[in-house]
Amino acid sequence: MTVAKAETELTDDPTLAPASPGRSDLGGRSGELARRLGGPALVVLAVILANFPALIGLVDVSPLGTVGATASHVSPGFFHGVWYTDPQIGYTAQALGHLAAMDWLHGIIPWWNPLEGAGVPFAAEMQAAVFFPPTLLLALPDGQLFFHMVLEAAAGIGTLLLLRELNMSRPVAALGGVLFALNGTFVWFWHAPANPVALLPFELLGVERIFRRSAKDNAGWIILAFSLALSFYAGFPETTYLDGLLVAAERIGLDMPEARKTIASGLRAGAARARKVAR
């Protein structure tokens, strides 16, 4: 009788009762979602921290005063020097980008720039990146800062997804995403030549999904198509072309050993000829 009573009390205790299948599944899904979002969240946090001095106004990264010559005087900050390598950061990236963003917000497709001489084609001025979606951020006072934070975050998340596709662990993929998001290209080049670099990891990701997965992978083709289109719209086709060469070389190097040998021999022959010319 005593044993039976004890067994009954154990069964009735809600803290000792087995978890219901629904609650267990929900907890498992929540944990998996947290693990999946942890890497991208870390990349975004790293980008915010890296740009935090500019976000709070400790440093001014607008080229309007220095490049646009609208400042009456410029005082050196705690760190001397400038944060850019090319004045096109102001001449094209900020000025034309802001005009394109304002045109869109006023319902005008920016085909034509009436503010330059008697007017010039605007969309054909590729460096304005008039069809690149983040260009709309240049309508904001600190739009250029937000524009490049978006590029950095996109580049980092794309790298993270690429490394996960290559069977890297989540911590390694997150670290790779942070490192690529904060690479020197985005630090020094705040104008159009750096824009397509943010799409390179997505191009590689699309190609890797297409070649690595046995079944037909529509997502890989969609990622590749959108990343190539956005890379072209980003404002510098030369960088897009170089990105495409890198993607092609990566696949040739992995899947075509004979072609790899041919390319290597060609590079050696070219290097030998270059040495002769240099002499």
Strand content: under 5%
Instruction: Return the structural class.
Output: mainly alpha
In DSSP terms (H or I, runs of 4 or more residues), the helix count works out at: 11
- Report the mean per-residue pLDDT as an integer: 81
Strand count, sense and barrel status of the largest sheet are: 2 strands, antiparallel
Shape, please?
A: globular
H/E series: HHHHEEHHHHHHH
Domains counted in the coordinates: how many? 1
Oligomeric state of shown chains: single chain
What do you see in this structure?
This protein is mainly alpha-helical and about 280 residues long. The protein has one domain. Helix content is about 60%, strand content about 0%. The chain is built from eleven helices and two strands. The chain has a two-stranded antiparallel sheet. It is globular and about 60 Å long. It starts with a helix and ends with a helix. The model has no long low-confidence stretch (mean pLDDT about 80).
